[in-house]
Amino acid sequence: MEHIEITSYDDCLVSCLDEPSVDHWRVRTDDPEFLSAFIDVLQEEDPVGKRIEWLCDQDVIKGLEKNFVRAAKASDLVTESTLTIRESTDAAPNTPTVLVSPERTVSLLPVGDGEAVQIDITEEAACERLWEKYQSEWDIAMPHSIDTPPYSRLVTMAEQKLGDGVGADIDTAYTAVESRSPDEQPEPVTVSLLVGAKHELLLNDIVDWAETSTLATQGTVSKLKQRLEEFDIIATESKSVGVGRPRQRLVFSDESMQSLPADELVAHVQGVLV
Predict the structure, then answer these.
(1) Measured between alpha carbons, how far is 238 from 228 in angstroms, rounded to an integer?
(2) In the chain, what are the helix, strand and coil shares in percent, each to the nearest 5?
(3) Which stretches in the chain have pLDDT values below 70?
(4) CATH 3.30.870.10, the chain: domain bounds
(5) CA–CA gap between residue 157 and residue 219 (Å, rounded)
(6) Listed residue (158, 137, 136) closest to 149, CA to CA
(7) Do 6 and 117 touch, CB atoms closer than 8 A?
(8) Beta partners for residue 15, in sequence order
(9) Is 244 left (phi over 0), alpha (psi -120 to 50) or beta?
(10) Which helix (H) or strand (E) holds 41?
(11) Which helix (H) or strand (E) segment is 131 a member of?
(12) Of 93, 184, 191, 192, which has fewest CB within 10 angstroms of its CB?
């Protein structure tokens, strides 16, 4: 039996995850817009007790990993065992978006603006055949891990290591660049340095957080700090710590930037950062 309607990606995903008779979904898609909704809904819904698997092509996963924030949020889902990813060994350009389970299959035909024609199939024989097809693909696909550090780790460790409000500002700043194309996104370390200057943090503390969270090495942080200094966006002041050499504290070259919210801060220097 089929049911056809126009729906949003978000509503379709929530409906599937809330389906009490289905505890195992396998997703096949190369649609970036659907993929963004997929990651967001999984984070919001936290589908405990459900097996969620994503079968993807190499080009699609590479595209995801170019978007740092999206990749970090997907890494969260993998780390929490909410999502399992495998890379198909059989590339299939223009793959239709389908959500397959032994009990129900959903096919989505995009119509734009985050909406699609949703075709629901619940006929037992059809669902069994479709499940067998995608099970065969899944069995020979290669497990894929995302190298980007989990998003929650970055934000939580920033709050713990760098002080009250820093994690929230990093979250706000990262969110501000998330929807932009990868070519228009500043480096995540650069964004973090801007937040560091807003809070007048010690450079050593930023380096420690970046290395501990596996975001970046000391060399990368230093290189990007120097770039911001060359563009006269940030500067450093010496701070005595009582013993040993003075530490470098990050500040803005233009003091008026200090009062800008984290998202406006990134937008203010966007032309220089990219």
Answers:
(1) 17
(2) 50, 20, 30
(3) 1, 91-93, 241-244, 271-274
(4) 2-143
(5) 20
(6) 158
(7) yes
(8) none
(9) left
(10) helix 32-45
(11) helix 124-140
(12) 93
Sheet holding 142-143, edge to edge: 2-8, 115-121, 105-112, 97-100, 24-28, 51-56, 83-87, 142-143
Instruction: Please give the model's pTM, rounded to 2 decimal places.
Output: 0.91
**Assigned CATH for 151-273:** 1.10.10
The answer to whether 172 and 263 are in contact (CB under 8 A) is yes
Instruction: State residue 216's pLDDT score.
Output: 96
Which CATH code is given to the segment(s) 2-143?
A: 3.30.870.10
CA pair distance 48, 131, nearest whole angstrom: 22
What pLDDT, on a 0 to 100 scale, did the predictor assign at position 2? 75
pLDDT of residue 273: 62
Give the whole-angstrom CA distance, residue 196 versus residue 224. 13
Quote the tokens at residue 26.
Answer: 């396998």
- As a whole number of angstroms, the distance between CA 12 and CA 148 comes to 28
Which pLDDT score, from 0 to 100, does residue 244 have? Answer: 64
In the chain, ranges of CATH 1.10.10 domains: 151-273
Residue 35, class by beta-carbon neighbours within 10 Å (0-12 exposed, 13-18 middle, 19+ buried)? buried
pLDDT for the residue numbered 239: 80
Q: Are strands 115-121 and 105-112 parallel, antiparallel or unpaired?
A: antiparallel
Query: Residue 210 in 3-state DSSP?
Result: helix
d(CA 87, CA 57): 6
Work out whether strand 97-100 and strand 105-112 pair parallel, antiparallel, or are unpaired: antiparallel
Closest CA to 170 of 24, 247, 72, 79: 72
